[in-house]
């Protein structure tokens, strides 16, 4: 809604600017025409060697320019544009508060963990020198193991991008059992790409020998896939024009590097996406709500700084929902081991503390806040998420 208002205001400013530019150009062109005509008169009289009263020509030009009033027209057009620009700036300040520091509160961070998270982010991006410099300047111990692991990943990915699958195949072979536990077919996909690559650049015999050596172990579980690859042997050297030309698409290589990165991070116990990137993206999405809350709480600064739980929900997209949580609709408290969610016979759910407050005692019945049902504590059952 706010973005729509800003967009509409921007469109109006854009139209005003184009109109102002058009009017200004018309005035400039008109002034230029009058000056050219005056110069033409002077030049014409000079070429004919006839006496000419230059003063009268210039006086006439002055009268015409005064009648046009270029300065007045230009100032009027620009003034109208400036007024609208000023209004637009105020609108931006209202909806897009540039001072995001208002949402900041003094929070005790473990700077050791923060430094490790930032360094790990750089390692993920392949910026190993930058990660090392950060840890060195912060006086942190080197994350040698983590750096080594991501260094291996980038070497494997770098080789795959130039269609060298040897490092990736070696890694997949070493971690075959772990990949099976994750129900991953990554090793088969690597061999399939290698087989297609041989079929395109080598001979049919080379491709067949590769299939016998490396694809046979997958035949029992992936017979359809193996049969499809064997059919490709009939089109050796011309796979691009075959019914199986889709197997030569470059998208398979792009998808492979992405899946390879996911599986590699999974076996390391790391998330596929950098935690720092997720935290920043979530913070940006929740920032408008936090700024509004900070403005509302500006008169109660101490209460805002001491607040341990936000009084309003911060709505984030599904991509930021990693596990199920329960927030009691009555107390607005998040469920925990000490205060678990409880299912009532009417199928509404409240936190245990809310149920105890409503019942006032373990034997007294109480009315559900959301329906007419009468409930007792003994009838409630704990839910597990």
TrEMBL record:
Q: Which residues form the CTLH domain?
A: 149-206
Q: Which Gene3D superfamilies match?
A: Zinc/RING finger domain, C3HC4 (zinc finger)
Q: Membrane-spanning residues where?
A: none
Q: Which UniProt keywords apply?
A: Cytoplasm, Metal-binding, Zinc, Zinc-finger
Per UniProt, subcellular location reads as: Cytoplasm
Protein name per its UniProtKB record: RING-Gid-type domain-containing protein
User: Which is a Pfam family this sequence falls into?
Assistant: CTLH
Q: Does the keyword Magnesium apply?
A: no
Major location (coarse): cytoplasm
Q: Which SUPFAM superfamilies match?
A: RING/U-box
Q: Which PROSITE patterns match?
A: CTLH, ZF_RING_GID
Q: Which domain of life is it from?
A: Eukaryota
Q: Which part of the chain is the RING-Gid-type domain?
A: 328-371
What InterPro entries does this protein's entry cite? CRA_dom, CTLH/CRA, CTLH_C, Fyv10_fam, Rmd5_dRing, ZF_RING_GID, Znf-RING_euk, Znf_RING
Which GO terms fall under biological process for this protein? proteasome-mediated ubiquitin-dependent protein catabolic process
């Amino acid at each position: 809604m706010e973005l729509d208002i800003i967009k509409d205001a921007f469109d109006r400013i854009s139209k005003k600017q184009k109109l102002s530019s058009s009017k200004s150009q018309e005035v400039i062109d008109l002034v230029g025409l009058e000056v050219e005509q005056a110069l033409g008169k002077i030049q014409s009289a000079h070429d004919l060697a006839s006496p000419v009263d230059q003063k009268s020509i210039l006086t006439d030009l002055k009268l015409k320019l005064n009648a046009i009033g270029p300065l007045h027209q230009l100032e009027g057009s620009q003034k109208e544009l400036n007024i609208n620009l000023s209004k637009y700036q105020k609108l931006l300040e209202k909806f897009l508060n540039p001072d995001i520091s208002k949402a900041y509160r003094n929070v005790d961070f473990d700077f050791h963990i923060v430094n490790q998270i930032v360094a790990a982010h750089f390692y993920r991006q392949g910026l190993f020198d930058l990660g090392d410099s950060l840890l060195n300047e912060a006086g942190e111990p080197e994350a040698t193991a983590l750096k080594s692991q991501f260094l291996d990943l980038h070497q494997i990915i770098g080789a795959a991008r130039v269609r060298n699958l040897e490092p990736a195949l070696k890694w997949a072979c070493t971690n075959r059992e772990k990949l099976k536990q994750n129900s991953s077919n990554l090793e088969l996909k690597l061999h399939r790409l290698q087989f297609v690559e041989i079929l395109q650049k080598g001979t049919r015999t080379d491709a067949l020998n590769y299939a016998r050596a490396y694809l046979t172990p997958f035949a029992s579980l992936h017979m359809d896939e193996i049969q499809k690859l064997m059919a490709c042997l009939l089109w050796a050297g011309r796979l691009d024009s075959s019914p199986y030309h889709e197997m030569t698409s470059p998208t398979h290589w792009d998808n492979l590097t992405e899946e390879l990165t996911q599986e590699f991070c999974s076996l390391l116990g790391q998330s596929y996406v950098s935690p720092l990137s997720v935290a920043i993206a979530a913070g940006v999405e929740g920032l408008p709500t936090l700024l509004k809350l900070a403005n509302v709480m500006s008169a109660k600064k101490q209460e805002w700084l001491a607040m341990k739980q936000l009084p309003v929900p911060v709505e984030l997209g599904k991509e930021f929902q990693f596990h199920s949580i329960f927030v009691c609709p009555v107390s607005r408290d998040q469920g925990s081991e000490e205060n678990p969610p409880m299912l009532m016979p009417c199928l509404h759910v409240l936190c245990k503390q809310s149920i105890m407050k409503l019942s006032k005692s373990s034997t007294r019945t109480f009315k559900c806040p959301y329906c007419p049902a009468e409930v007792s504590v003994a009838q409630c059952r704990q839910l597990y998420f």
